[in-house]
Amino acid sequence: MENKREDIILAFHKAQEESGSNYIPIEKVKDIAKNFNVSLSEVSGLLTFYTMFSTEKRGKYIIRVCDSLSCRLMHSIDILLYIQNKLGIDEGKTTKDGLFTIERVNCLGRCFSAPNMMINDKIYGNLTPEKIDNIISEIIKEEKND
Ligand code: FES
To answer: N or C: which end of the chain has fewer CB within 10 A?
Structure first.
């Protein structure tokens, strides 16, 4: 299993991308186990170890709010609550239109600009409610133009 780890993780990334909903369907997890000739429990263990993977459908945009020490000291909880209220969903949930999922995560490695969040691959720092409003409005605008 250890020598296949990196390739299995790559397969997870590919499967998640292909799903279009930021998740890996359980049937796909079974396929990956079969293809790499490892047990389903080993593959599942690896999958749950990495928070970037999920077997549940998630939004096109995953908003990950950092809640480690530096961000916590800069009121990350208020940021999290603000986003939850704005989108009308709790953390771990996805908006009905399938656009946004909110997750709480550990340090994003950008403590100097706390509080931080990451939306898909992009990190946003020094967050304020106004900044969040602008970021989310931009995404919604882009989506409407697509
Ligand atoms: S504590 Fe939030 S980025 Fe490090």
So the answer is: C
